[in-house]
Every structure is written in structure tokens, then in C-alpha cells.
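PROTOCOL LOG
Step 1. Enter all chains and additional molecules of the complex.
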Amino acid sequence: MNPSTRIHTRLAALAVLVLGCAQAGVLPDDRADILWHRYNGGGITIQGPSILVRKKFGDHFSVAYNHYEDMISGASIDVITQASPYKEHRKQDSLSVDVLHGKTTYSAGYIGSKENDYKATTAFASVSQDMFGDLTTVSFGFTRGWDKVGELGTTRNDAVERRNWQIGLSQILTRNLLLGLNFETSESEGFLNNPYRQVRYLDPLEALGYAYEKERYPHTRTGNAGSGQLKYYLPWHAAVSGSYRFFADTWGIRANTAELGYTQPLFHSWTLDTHVRMYSQNQADFYSDLFPFRDAQNFLARDRELAAFRNLTMGIGATWEYHVSRFSWLQKGTINVRWDRMHISYDDFRDLRVQGVAPGTEPLYILNANIFQGFISFWF
Amino acid sequence: MNTRGWRHVAIWLLAAAGSVALSACSPITPWVKPYEREHLADPIMSFTPNPVSNTYIDHVYESREGARGATGGVGGGCGCN
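Step 2. Run joint prediction.
Step 3. Record the structure below.
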């Protein structure tokens, strides 16, 4: 059972980040990253590698390739209360090219992602332009996706189409201060809910006092997100950053995200960083933890992602930089570790592992997770 | 505000618009010179110093949250390299 079908779609969209972050006027560095990630929380473990290689060819052409995997095992609260534990393996490959022409960088790429019951194909293109003496960089991007949604044990083969439009602005404000602004509109159309997930409704004939039926989502969703971030260079060779994002969509979700970060180099070869991130959202219009009766409304959801909740995440990281004089092709390398602690408290999603109480009076669910990353990077 | 007051405001607005229009005809002088961008070019000032790590952690958030987008995926950069 797949508890998070849309992860696939988002993973593909996010891959644009790893491939499409070229700066205008300059091609990205030649570098390779080998990362191992591990998420542990809410009864599930997700881990796997991510490998990124970038290489320039001449002064105007650069290629990037990324391979990413998620290996999922365990049983989330949804699985415990509605199905059996499972294992799943998701793979994604991405390829992009950057072409530099004067102060303009053109980027295009392809992302393919698949697992046993979901396949996503994504294409993207963007253009970035430096202007005003390289004080300002303006970017425009477009992403298009085609997904196929399956359901194990059935012949389901539904389609989802995705379109994203992005605008970005990066601005040097002073010799110590940078500003970044981004706006993105996303549009999805097709079978958008998880074919396995169910909602619950009151049913006095059941021993628990409630029964389950399948979720039903609208077939379209449009969202808008706007964000701003500042980064300031401190006099003692450190950096502090702050960001804010607002999101709203046609499903009634409104979300706020704020993040603060601090980076401190130490002893010439070490860099330590820490950050805190706060997120909150209200519930979708058609979400309920407990519906009053079967088919209570046209659209039904009990997906935690659409519930009202707050997420507080704090993290620390360390980087050690080294040079190997024996290898002339290696400019430098880094070894990095990062640990994040995530705490999500839900306002209207109840813990159904607690039974023997009246439906709707179970304790609210809390998710705690540890997220670990270890990776090495090479610049060549 | 009387008619004379409105006329005064209109003159000032026209003067301001004229100044902006005239300045658009001449090249903008960078107020932070290239040789003053040493701090901005420091790796600690990058918004995404490790793309593979930034992408992963954004994936973790977006898999569990309703919001998405505007995380700076289409480019940007400080133009300070």
C-alpha cells in the first residue's frame, strides 16, 4: 500500500531544484555529490542514495545528472489502522543542460520517476538573465508533468497532468545583504487522491462506532506560493538568513512558512550551521477526521497532509573541507553531516490506535521524526 | 484638500515620474561595485550551498505538508561569482 502517492509528483517537481539552480551569467561549478538520506518517524523508515554530477563542456555548456532513490519500510498510522505493513522502492533519474549566452542562461531538463504503482514524467525549461551591472538576476521557468496512477491488485491506470510556472528575482541590496523573491503557480488535473487511502464516518452498527470509505478529491487543484528570503553577511565571517512563504490553493489550504538560519565557519576548514523552521496550515475544505455519515459530501478527505497542523523543525549541520594535493584534478572536497528533528502536531487528525473511546474523542496525533543526511562532495 | 492642494500634489507626482523616465534612459550604475562583492561571493552566502541536500529536505517537507512551490527552483543566484 502506498500512503503517499503524491510524493512521487512532488519529488519530480523538486528535482528541478537540484538541476535547475544555475545562475545567470555563470555556469554552475563542476561538482559531484553522493548523499545518503534516512528519515525515521511515525512508524516508517525511508532511506536511500542521491547522486548528483555536474560537468561543463567548454565555456557555454553544462550538463547535470541526478539519481535518487527512496526505500520505504514500516507502517505509518494510516497503515496500522487500515492496512498491513509494506515495503516500497521508488527511483528517479534526471538530466538537464544549461547553455550560457552572454548574461543569459537557458536551462532544460527531463525527469523520470517510477515505482510499482506510480509513474511520473516531467519536463522543464527556464531562462535566467543578469541585469543592472549583475546586481539583479531575473528567472522564468515552466514545468510540465504527465503521471500515471495505478493501484495494486486492480487495472487502474489514471492520468494526472501538472503545470508549474515560476518567477524568481535575486537582488544584491548592499555589499553584505542579498534578497531573493520567488513566485510559483502550480496546476494539477486528473486523479489527485491516493487510491488506497480512506476516510471514516460514524456508523453505530460497527463495533468501533465508525466505518471507512474511499477518499474522493476534486480533479483539479491550483495553488499559488510567494516567498522572500534575506541573507546577511556578519562582520565576524558568519551569515544569518531569514525567509517567509505564503501559500494558498483552490482546496482552501492557507499555509505560512518561516525559517531562520545561521552559518559559522570555524578553524579554516569547518563550517557549522543551524536553523529553525516553523510551518502552519489550515485544513482543506473537504477534509474531516470523522464524517457524520457515509457519502456525507461530494469530496472526502482524511489525508494528514490536508489537515490543520503545525510543524516545528530544528536542525544542525557540519561541513569539513579538505584538499588532496596528490590529485591535481580535485580542487576541493567536503564531508557533510546534517540532522533535523521534526515535530508535527495535528489539530484535527486523531490517533485511531487508541480504541474504546467515543469516535471523535481519540487523542490528537503527534508525529516526531529524525532526518539524517550524510554526503560527500567533490569540486573538480 | 482644495484644488490648489491637488494641483501641488499632481506637479510633484509628474516631476517624480519624469525623473524615473529620464533615469530609465541612462544606464543604471551598480551601487555595489564588483570589487565590493567579496562577502557576497563567500560560499556561506549561497541560498542553496548544497543543492542535493536542499532538494532532499524540501522533498521531506512537501511530502507531509499541503503547501508547495516558490522554493527558488528556477534559478536566481547573486550574480557575484
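Step 4. Note key features.
Chain A touches chain B through 98 residues (CB under 8 Å).
Confidence is low (pLDDT under 50) at residues 1-9 of chain A.
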